[in-house]
Amino acid sequence: MMKTYSAKAADLQPKWYVIDAEGQVLGRLATQIAHILRGKHKPTFTPHLNSGDFVIVINAEKIAVSGNRLDQKVYYRHTQYPGGLKKTTLRQTLEGKHPERALEHAVRGMVMHNRLGTRVMSRLKIYAGPTHPHEAQKPAIWEGPETLLKQLTEAK
């Protein structure tokens, strides 16, 4: 009889990864980040646990988009007052005070919309510039899931 593996919270050991967003397409990068945060790249993936890794994104202000998306993509928010609908384009967001919010908004839409999703999003650290304050965690550079497979086969 086969048994389904289910990881325990004590078995999980999250790693830290750095991703350089310069020149990368917003949506494609957001899917990779959501995949890492959720932990789906690991063989120990467990749906009900926060089994993902920490992700540090640098150069978020230099992210690329295709087509006319800079002017056509609009973020809406409402002040909860009559007539309080506010619109912001992607260009205004990237050129504004907090350009990292565009990538955060894209990733937030790709993770679960519940308490586990909130805990998953707390592992995402986005910085507009090329520096970050997480050197003490010794983050590795993310090069894709293929690299993880090589590391696992070399360890055996």
Automatic annotation (TrEMBL):
Gene Ontology cellular-component terms listed: cytosolic large ribosomal subunit
Keyword presence, Ribosomal protein: yes
Protein name listed in UniProt: Large ribosomal subunit protein uL13
Signal peptide location: none
Top-rank taxon: Bacteria
Alphabetically ordered keywords of this record: Ribonucleoprotein, Ribosomal protein
Species in which this protein is naturally found: Dictyobacter aurantiacus
InterPro entries the record matches: Ribosomal_uL13, Ribosomal_uL13_bac-type, Ribosomal_uL13_sf
GO biological process terms, semicolon-separated: negative regulation of translation; translation
CDD domains noted in UniProt: Ribosomal_L13 (cd00392)
Gene name of the record: rplM
Family to which this protein belongs: Belongs to the universal ribosomal protein uL13 family.
Entry GO MF terms: mRNA binding; structural constituent of ribosome
Quaternary structure note: Part of the 50S ribosomal subunit.
Keyword flag Ubl conjugation: no
Protein purpose: This protein is one of the early assembly proteins of the 50S ribosomal subunit, although it is not seen to bind rRNA by itself. It is important during the early stages of 50S assembly.
